[in-house]
Amino acid sequence: MKNVRLMFVLALFVLVSAINAFAEQSLTASGHPEYPPVMWKQGDVITGVGSELLKLAFKPLGVAVKCPYKGDWSTVQGELKAGAIDALVGVYLTEERKSFMEFSVPFMKDPVVIFVAKTKAFPFEKWDDLIGKKGATTAGDSFGQAFDAFISSKLDVKRSVTVKENFDKLLSGEADYFIFAKYSGEFEAKKLGFADKIESLKKEAAVENFYFAFSKKSKLAPLLPKVNIQIVKLVNNGTVEKLIRKYTKIYEESLPKGN
Fold first, then answer.
1. I need a surface site. Which of 37, 58, 102, 257 has the fewest CB within 10 A?
2. What whole-number distance in Å separates Cα of residue 59 and Cα of residue 23?
């Protein structure tokens, strides 16, 4: 009987020690610096819907989440690929990214549109309507597997590091259109003072899902199934919708007055 009790105590000690060690772990995530309300740079951190949602998903697992700013979007993805960070707080799923990322279940949808200078709108009903025109988008951005393939094979699209550079291209005539997320693009136009000069064409170019992505080199990637359970709960109980409203308001209040 004493041996049984001793074995039980030892097993309990090992379990508690494992839980404590797990709880002491932290996860480092980052994201796109110009994609409000999902993620954007605020000081030295990435904030937004994705950052808070990832923290909420990991909270029941006892893992603390940090979301430092790590540079432009291409740089951030390179950091993840190298294993320098554990996760991204929001990203579209593509086959190329699956080679070095493990994806969560989706947590929200994101419409992709065609931005143009207000004086230079053109009819747009299908992707073919972009053929022969000069396009722009941001470095490292993806717009879904199908649209990415079409852009690569059929369109003349140049990439710049920042949203501002692409808006400048529209206004200078260097580009006829700019492919970007609808809400993030509209927010950035207000922030940068382009709201009265830029508009999006009515027809959406695509509608994609946002996912969390984990580096395949991260020691925390095996927790993904448990994280997925939390994400589904947070979507179903309305938390994600509340976060979208919360961070939309926060970002709008941060914009220069009068824009």
1. 257
2. 10
φ and ψ at 191, to 5 degrees?
-60, -40
Q: Using alpha carbons, select from 175, 162, 163, 57 the residue that is nearest to residue 116.
A: 175
Task: Enumerate domains of the chain plus CATH numbers.
Answer: 2-108+210-254 (3.40.190.10), 110-207 (3.40.190.10)
| Structure tokens, 188 | 């950035």
Cβ contact 170:116 at 8 Å: yes
Spatial distance between the Cα atoms of 70 and 49, rounded to a whole number of angstroms: 18
Closest CA to 187 of 177, 195, 196: 195
Distance CA 244, CA 171 (A): 30
Can you tell me the distance from the alpha carbon of 148 to that of 135, in angstroms, rounded to the nearest whole number?
13
The full 3-state SS of 178-199, as one line of letters, equals EEEEHHHHHHHHHHHCCCCCEE
- Confirm if 177 and 120 have CB atoms less than 8 A apart: no
Q: Compute the residue count for the chain.
A: 259
Residue 189 in contact with residue 167, Cβ under 8 Å? yes
pLDDT, one tens digit per residue, over 174-183 is 999 999 999 9
Calpha distance 31→213 (Å, rounded):
10
Q: Are 257 and 195 in contact (CB under 8 A)?
A: no
Residue 12 contacts residue 2 (beta carbons within 8 Å): no
